[in-house]
């Protein structure tokens, strides 16, 4: 398992509190943008817990099919009450369940998940008998779950039961001081038998000022690509992908604030609408135009009811 790397205050705080949180059995709700390492944090919490010798079952809620979700999560019994299909909650007995992208969990099963959280009870298809599983619940989301609750897309009681302890994986732009450490670590890891890729001061400046919308996952992919294509090379700005090149000099402002001020929310809304129009409604392309992740764009579209 890859370790959580970093010496920034945000990462240092996570590493300092992680053992204490891991030692308990409370539910943890992990916040963070796509690519920040939410699943890595869940793996670390399990690995440092008393349940580390038992299974960690990861469930990507976004990939669950509505018609088969109850069978997948809880399982099924035959007419004699025997378990013929062990759901993932039962399979995690003694271990940990990680509900990734929990905000996409269908409303139709949220009540049953809440029941499992409160009492460890599973209602299997084909039987009225309740089966019990002792599993700890960790969950992660890249959206504002409180807004999902306010918009009746997520149960409030389940939200509060999941968020006994909230943790946040910071975006890479929030802890840019960790970029050098990450470049060196993954540079050595991906170099193999080749010489390690190096970066000129000018190239490093580009990487420090880049927004990294894909966060650490994007950085890892970038380092791996450079190790394959430019082994041992001292990279210059011209060797970097176009999107990593600064388009505006550091001494210039991209926007000039008028003396009368602005309504920031209206500016943000206008820019989102312009990006969607330029991208012909393609949300991934619109997010790239705005320099943010697709999940962040979707969150802000929900914020403005677009």
What this model shows, in words?
Helix 1 (9-22) packs parallel to helix 2 (38-47), helix 8 packs across helix 10 (215-229) and helix 12 packs across helix 13. A hairpin with a 5-residue loop joins strand 3 (75-77) and strand 4 (83-86). The chain folds into three domains: 9-168, Rossmann fold, CATH 3.40.50.300; 179-244, Helicase, Ruva Protein, domain 3 (Orthogonal Bundle); 264-303, Orthogonal Bundle (Arc Repressor Mutant, subunit A), CATH 1.10.10. It has 306 residues and is an alpha/beta fold. It is globular. It is built from 13 helices and eleven strands. The chain has a five-stranded parallel sheet with strand order 2-5-8-1-9. A two-stranded antiparallel ribbon has the order 3-4. The two termini are 40 Å apart. It has helices spanning 9-22, 38-47, 69-74, 88-91, 107-119, 145-150, 156-162, 179-191, 201-209, 215-229, 264-278, 283-290, 294-303, and strands spanning 28-31, 56-60, 75-77, 83-86, 96-100, 121-123, 130-132, 136-141, 165-168, 198-199, 234-235. It is 42% helix and 13% strand.
Report, as a whole number of angstroms, the end-to-end distance. Answer: 40 Å
CATH superfamily of the largest domain: P-loop containing nucleotide triphosphate hydrolases
In terms of quaternary structure, what is this?
Answer: single chain
Helix proportion: 40-55%
Poorly predicted segments: 248-252
Structural class: alpha/beta
Rg value? 23 Å
What is the CATH topology classification name of the largest domain? Answer: Rossmann fold
How big a fraction of the residues is strand? Answer: 5-15%
Shape: globular
């Amino acid at each position: 398992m890859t370790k959580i790397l970093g010496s920034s205050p945000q990462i240092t705080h996570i590493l300092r509190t992680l053992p204490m949180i891991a030692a308990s059995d409370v539910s943890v709700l992990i916040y963070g943008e796509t690519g920040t390492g939410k699943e890595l944090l869940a793996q670390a919490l399990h690995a440092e817990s008393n349940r580390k010798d038992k299974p960690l079952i990861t469930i990507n809620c976004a990939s669950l099919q509505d018609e088969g979700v109850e069978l997948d999560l809880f399982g099924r019994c035959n007419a004699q009450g025997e378990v013929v299909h062990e759901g993932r909650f039962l399979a995690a007995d003694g271990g940990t369940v990680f509900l990734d992208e929990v905000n996409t969990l269908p409303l139709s099963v949220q009540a049953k998940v809440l029941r499992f959280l409160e009492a460890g009870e599973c209602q299997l298809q084909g039987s009225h008998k309740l089966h019990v599983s002792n599993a700890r619940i960790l969950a992660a989301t890249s959206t504002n779950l409180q807004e999902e609750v306010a918009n009746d897309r997520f149960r409030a009681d389940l939200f509060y039961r999941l968020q006994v302890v909230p943790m946040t994986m910071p975006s890479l732009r929030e802890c840019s001081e960790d970029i050098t450490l990450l470049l060196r670590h993954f540079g050595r890891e991906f170099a193999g038998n080749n010489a390690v890729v190096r970066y000129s001061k000018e190239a490093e400046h580009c990487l420090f000022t880049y927004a990294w919308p894909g966060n650490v996952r994007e950085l890892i992919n970038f380092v791996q690509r450079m190790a394959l294509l430019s082994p041992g090379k001292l990279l210059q700005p011209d060797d970097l992908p176009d999107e990593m090149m600064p388009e505006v000099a550091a001494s210039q402002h991209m926007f000039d604030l008028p003396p009368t001020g602005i309504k920031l929310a209206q500016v943000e809304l206008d820019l989102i609408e312009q990006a969607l129009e330029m991208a012909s409604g393609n949300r991934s392309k619109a997010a790239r135009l705005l320099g943010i992740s697709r999940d962040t764009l979707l969150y802000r579209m929900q914020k403005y009811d677009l």
